[in-house]
Amino acid sequence: MRYENTTTGRFIDRPNRFIAHVETGGSIETVHVKNTGRCKELLLPGVEVTLAVLDNPSRRTKFDLVSVYKKNLGWVNIDSQAPNVVVKEWLESGQQIFPNITALKPEYSYGDSRVDFYLECGSRRIFIEVKGCTLEIDGIGYFPDAPTERGVKHLHELMKAVKDGYECFIAFVISMPKVKTVLPNRTTHPEFGEALDAAIKAGVKVLHLPCDVKPDELAIHSSC
Q1: Is residue 203 part of a domain?
Q2: Which domain holds residue 200?
Q3: Quick one: CA dihedral 181, 201, 188, 13, positive or negative?
Q4: Are strands 167-174 and 124-133 parallel, antiparallel or unpaired?
Q5: Which of these, 39, 51, 40, 42, lies nearest to 9 by C-alpha position?
Q6: Is there a domain that residue 175 lies in?
Q7: DSSP H helices in 2-127
Q8: What is the dihedral sign for C-alpha 10, 45, 78, 175?
Q9: pLDDT in tens, the chain (224 residues)
Q10: Looking at the DSSP assignment, which residues form a beta bridge with residue 128?
Q11: Helix H or strand E segment including 163
């Protein structure tokens, strides 16, 4: 995926989960942060950020903050909507993990949740739940960077789906370069780690999807 119109700036601060102040074009702008996670190790005063320029007069802000430059790592995409977009692009690209897709349905209702993707490959019925990973420590990705009761609920739904005969995957989209593996962040949210352990034991499979990242682009690596 590629953002059509972007500019750069310098991060100043983040008053709450939804907005930040960024210096860009000689002025200080209030921008929308497209990630409600903590991102504390990324959004440091003075770091370079990429802003998507919006053409929507009804919006209160003119920019979305979509990527951050992290020293010794590179650009990190923090747009929480981007992982689903790039997974859909990847599934449609002819990748080899799910060959011969005959049906692909985003936001598929199952139980009390909506699973990110339902697909069929011949007789295979498959659910994929997508999680974007932006937290890196010593070259390893960790998820989540803030507690996610929703994420725990999704894992329980996948376990039920396995019992109903579906193939189920949780796909960690690694929205940063140089990182290949994701571990559960048991320090921040031990319940998610416990739920992931139980899901794997129940037959849910884990996909690690490293990405190629540019300030204005994100794509799952071609090796996946």
Answers
A1: yes
A2: 82-220
A3: positive
A4: parallel
A5: 51
A6: yes
A7: 82-91
A8: positive
A9: 999 999 999 999 999 999 999 999 999 999 999 998 889 999 999 999 999 999 877 788 999 999 999 999 999 999 999 999 999 999 999 898 999 999 999 999 998 889 999 999 999 999 999 999 999 999 999 999 999 999 999 999 999 999 999 999 999 999 999 999 999 999 999 999 999 999 999 999 999 999 999 999 999 998 87
A10: 117, 169
A11: helix 149-163
- DSSP letters for 139-159: TEEEE-SS--HHHHHHHHHHH
Tell whether 117 and 66 lie within a shared domain: no
Say which CATH number the domain at 47 has: 2.40.50.580
Domain boundary among 39, 61, 77: 77
Stated pTM of the model: 0.94
CA angle 164, 167, 170 (to 5 degrees): 115
Measured between alpha carbons, how far is residue 126 from residues 112, 168, 204 in Å? 17, 6, 11
The two three-digit tokens of residue 64, written as one number: 């979305």
| 102 in the same domain as 40 | no
In a domain, 10, yes or no: yes
Identify the domain boundary among 16, 51, 77.
77
Phi, psi angle pair for 116, to nearest 5°: -60, -45
